[in-house]
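Possible regression after last week's pipeline update?

I re-ran a chain I had predicted before the update to compare outputs. Posting the input and the new output here so someone can diff against the archived version. Not blocking, just want to make sure nothing changed silently.
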Amino acid sequence: MGAHLGTQEEENEAGPPAETAQGGLPVEGAVPEPIAPTAIQSTRTSRALVRVLPALVVLAVILVFVFQNHKDVKVSFFTLSGTLPLSVALLGSAALGALLMLALGSVRILQLRRQVRRLSKGSDDNGA
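New output (post-update):
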């Protein structure tokens, strides 16, 4: 029984074990294996970019359509009427549609905020 089991301190003083290619350890001077990349968490900015990109594509398609249709057309809106380039009329109608959607979305957000406020007040009364 001539085997000597050293303590951890003795092993640390002796230095690292001999590195051999067959022992599973990398050969001295070899490039270490790359560390697996960790997943990068999503941020508000990245999510906003993902939402803006489809809108930019739609805008590009609208602009191509508008600039290909530059002939003058007669436009009537309520009691107003006149002659405009088709591209201006299309851009104006797209802008009015965007403003309408913005107004409707804002009203819906206000409704949801009121509901959340009512629900949180109700839960505060029940919890006290």
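Follow-up from reviewer: compared with the archived run. The mean pLDDT is 77. Marking as no regression found.
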